[in-house]
Amino acid sequence: MTEKLVATVEQRRSGARVIKLAGVLDEDNRLRELGEKLSGGTVLINLAGVERINSIGGRDWVKWLAALEAQGIRPILVSCSPAIVLQLNRVKNFAGNAMVKSFQAPYHCESCDADKLLLVHVSELRDRARPSCSCDVCGARMKLTEDPVTYFAFVKDLRNQREETPSEREIDFARGSKAAVSDEHIKRVSKPRLPMRDSRPSFAAHHFRKSEHEVVMMPAPAPATSSAAYITLMLTVIVCTIGVAVAIVYLIL
Length: 253
Fold this sequence. Notes:
This protein is of the alpha/beta class. It has a single domain, classed as STAS domain (Transcription Regulator spoIIAA). Helix content is 31%, strand content 23%. The chain contains eight helices and nine strands. A six-stranded mixed sheet has the order 5-4-3-2-1-9. The chain has a three-stranded antiparallel sheet with strand order 7-6-8. The radius of gyration is 30 Å and the shape is elongated.
């Protein structure tokens, strides 16, 4: 059974919003309902968990990004999965006017047969050659499983994407601090994860949860009776019992 698209939204007290999408982006995506729950501002969209996209899902995605822009929302795409990168290379306007900050590149180690998804930042890729990757298991040099020329082709179309101005970047994507949306913040939010090989149960199309900073306060447990108070109580009972016994004997005699 194909897993449907799952959307997790974190609304932090500072006003920052992080959306994580995972699963299959198809005709049952319900992106419109997700957009209705958002308001103006910048939103970080983590796409690391998107596994597959069909033609209808891709069409709805492009329309959804345009609708967000009409609402005054500026999306920033981070940790784009290989499925997203495939669409970025095939569909010219797949990202719309959204900024693409980082994406995943699949690597394979021929020595120990290990796989790895490397998080590549667009800003770093512009200044140097295509990234190299070492195996975390044996340390050998890993090989990109896709054709490098084809896989990184979309990056050249991002060279003219508009960079954030200081006022637009003044959003709290760090833990409780007021800081710009830097590469370090994005690394904390979007960590590449290899897809699980076992099957997973389907979830509801949208799952909204509280920010990690919202702590539910539980009532403190009632303090336990101290040992000294317990001993005093027992001594009082014993003394009273003895007094009553003495009084009864005195009355009988």
